[in-house]
Each structure stands twice: as structure tokens, then as C-alpha cells.
Write a structure and sequence with these properties.
The protein is an alpha+beta fold and 140 residues long. 34% of the residues lie in helices and 22% in strands. The chain has four helices and eight strands; from the N terminus they run ααββββββαββα. The protein has helices spanning 13-18, 23-40, 92-96, 119-136; strands spanning 44-47, 51-54, 57-60, 66-69, 72-76, 81-84, 103-104, 108-111. The strands form two sheets. Strands 1-2-5-6-8-7 form a six-stranded antiparallel β-sheet. Strands 3-4 form a two-stranded antiparallel ribbon.
């Protein structure tokens, strides 16, 4: 059976952020922590060794694969800061047009620093992602 790597843990979010080597990235992580917490209303939890997640949902694919994941989250990685939003959320592409300097992956949006982005658009991305996942996976 497939074992999920990214599970919610009891590790300290603050200890994780304090261990971020780059002081600017650490400062941005604290700013993101405040924005995500304020926007979602959820407490931050560590997911796996390096993702700070907010809220959770249970998903089940047609393949039978299922698990839990944070509704939204971020990770201050060495190269860039990864922002995690719902894959498939319809308004994301439109919102990203006014987001500022970023690159994208399947579920991730990558930024270098908070100063590069529009914080109001970030809040909209968070809200749309949470709404989409709660509607798509309503059982949690």
C-alpha cells in the first residue's frame, strides 16, 4: 500500500521557521504565517518535515488512492518559497495574473520573497483554494 510522505506532525512550526538559515526568508516565513493564519482562521501545523499547512481535507481518487492534506500551506525552501494551493481551482490562473513575480508548478506557486507579490491577491488565492477544496471534498 502506498504510504503518504506528507502527514500532519506535532513538530513545532516556530522551531522549523527559526531553523531557516536565510534571515530574509525567515522573516518572510513569519509574514506568511500571519497572512495564512489570519486568512484561513486555522492554526499552522507542520506537514512532513518542511510544509506549514493550514486546515486539512480528506481526498479519495478514483484509483482508490486517498489521504489527508492541508487546505493551503507554504514552505520556505532554500531556493524559493513554495506556496501550496488547490490543484484544479478555477480562479487561480486569473488571480496569478495580478500576483506579481512568481513561477508555477502543478499545485505550487513559487516566489522569491514577499516583496515581489501582491498580498491581497495572495489572500484571494488562499480563500479560493480553501473554498474549492471544501466544496470538492465536503466530508471533512
Amino acid at each position: 500500500m502506498y504510504e503518504l510522505k506528507t502527514k500532519e506532525t506535532d513538530n513545532s512550526v516556530i522551531e522549523f521557521i527559526e531553523a531557516v538559515e536565510n534571515p530574509k526568508k525567515r522573516e518572510d516565513a513569519y509574514k506568511l504565517l500571519d497572512i495564512f493564519k489570519e486568512t484561513t482562521g486555522f492554526e499552522a501545523k507542520m506537514w512532513g518535515p518542511s510544509i506549514i499547512g493550514f486546515g486539512s481535507y480528506h481526498y479519495k481518487y478514483e484509483s482508490g488512492h486517498e489521504g489527508d492534506a492541508p487546505l493551503v500551506g507554504f514552505s520556505p525552501r532554500k531556493a524559493k518559497i513554495s506556496l501550496y494551493f488547490a490543484p484544479g481551482e478555477k480562479k487561480r490562473e486569473q488571480l496569478l495574473k495580478n500576483f506579481g513575480k512568481h513561477t508555477t508548478g502543478k499545485a505550487c506557486v513559487y516566489i522569491n520573497k514577499i516583496a515581489d507579490i501582491n498580498k491581497d491577491v495572495l489572500k484571494e488565492l488562499i480563500n479560493e483554494s480553501v473554498k474549492f477544496l471544501k466544496e470538492t471534498y465536503p466530508h471533512k
